[in-house]
Each structure stands twice: as C-alpha cells, then as structure tokens.
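To: structure subgroup
Subject: Chain for Friday's discussion

All,

I'm putting the inputs and outputs inline so they're searchable in the archive.
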Amino acid sequence: MSILDETRFLETPHFFPGQRLLATDLQDLHDFNQAMRELHNASLHPSGIGNGFAVTGRKGERVVQIDAGYALDAKGREIVLTQPVELQVPPVAGEDDGGSVFYDLAIAYPDDDQLEEAETREGICLPRGAVRLREEPQLCWVRLQLDDLGNLHVVNGGLKAAIESGMAIVLARAELLNCQLERDVSIAERRSARQATHPHIAAGVAESPAWTTVPATGTLAILRAPVDTRAGKFSSTPTYWARVDGAHTVTITSAAGQSTVVPIAELVQVVEPTPDGFDAFVLALLPSDLREADLKIVQATLKSWKVVWLGVEG
C-alpha cells in the first residue's frame, strides 16, 4: 500500500523558533521524507538493480562474492549493500538423478522487526531507546527445479511470489554439483531498475505449444496455447506480435469421398500479455462433423506448428 492509498492529503512537518519538539515531530519528518522518496522510486522506476551488486563465482569454488550495490523493490524501498560480502553456496550434492542443482541468489529489503539496533541512548526519565537502526539487506539462495519442458521454476511458493512481484531481486544464478559450482555463476537473470534509453526488443519461437480448443459457435473454433517469452527478459509488459509458422490448411475428405481444403490458421491474437508470456488465440474453420481420420490430420498439423513472437518494450 502506497502513501496515495493511505491519505487524502499531504501534511509537511513545519517548525518555528521557540517550538518545543517531541520525538514524534522528528519521526514524522523522517517518515514523510521516506514515504515521498519511496513513492518517487515506485512511480518512476521498475524494481531491479540500480548500481553495483556484481556477483562472481568460478567453476569449482564453494563461495560467491557480492559487491556493494543499490537496488529497488516494488514498493520503492532502497536495498543497499555498502560492503562486499562472501556467501557460501548451498551444500547440496545434486539432484536425485545425479544431475546439477540450480539456485538463484536473491536480495530483499529487511522487515522492520529484523533491523538491528546500531545505537541506543538513555532517555530523560524514560527507558533506553534505539536512535539508529542498521539496514542490512537479506541474501537468500532460492531453489529452482526443471519442469518437463526444461524450464527452471522456483520451488518455494512464497519466494516465487516475492520474485515475481519485485519484492525480491535476483542477482545471479548458480549451477551446483557436489557442493560446488559446476560452472561460473550467471548474471543473465538480473533485472535493471534503470529506465531504458531505447526500446528493448526480443523475439523467439515457441516450439510445439500445447493447443486447446475454446468452445465457439457453428464451424468456428478457437485454438488457445500459452507462449513463454521469459527468454526476452522483459521488465514490464511489452507489445507483442505473433504468427503461426506451419501449414495453415488441411485437406479433409467427406463421407461421400469429396476432398475439401479447410483453413485452420487465419488470425493469431495475443491475449492476456505479461512480461513472461501470453496466450495465442487462433481462429479455425472446422466442420462440426469431422471424422476421426480428419481429426487426427488436424491434430498432427497442430503439433507441427510453431508460434513466432516479437516483443517491444519501452
């Protein structure tokens, strides 16, 4: 929830000579400035890395080095690491089948109750209280798992939601085997908080997408398939264009032995786009009384299709 959701107007703390200041007055001033800075960050910058946070780790090593850096989360909070740190990789031998294990290294802003008291002072006729809190970001190894299509997904649901929402920022990806790096760490998964000075354009091909039929009227059928565009590394939802690469017609034979050429891919529509993908809708003119042999021909044609996509962000 942002400051725009919590208040109907802004009140700027104001002081005058001779005014008696309370701790709440100064705290209100701090909270106001922080809320306005976070509102600025969240409104004008996507969550991601602003500066630094270089991560290095070579094949065969058991630790990674993380340089100082600056990042923003989805609430506009500033994640700052002032000194380089060294972090041990997870001590795992491998998958059950003997293959490598994959982890993402993520960083997040600490919760308020996790801030360490850096300095406390005695109050006047009141108990000692904290006057400085140390903000140290949280570093976390996030376990990944391969799906049937060979794509990596976050195992933990809570961490997956935090990364997808921009509350946790991925710094690097590690492939581990026998409790050490199987190859140098990758930083290709990082997301920048800086606005691009030129459009980000990416394209790809979805091989053999899983087509399902959406109920329609008459001889009109709608085929739907999810298209994964995570390879494009979009930080916001781009404008997509898509087309089907493959045979756009099939020849079917009626019970009377008459052959007819039927179009099955006249139009591709992009539906429900996100930074990670979209659903492709294809219109097909299919007779409602298709014979089983013709239906197999249509299904074989669909399996040979590829969806070629292009995304432009910015």
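Points worth raising on Friday:
Helices lie at 3-6, 23-44, 157-165, 292-303.
Residues 2 and 8 are 12 Å apart (CA to CA).

D.
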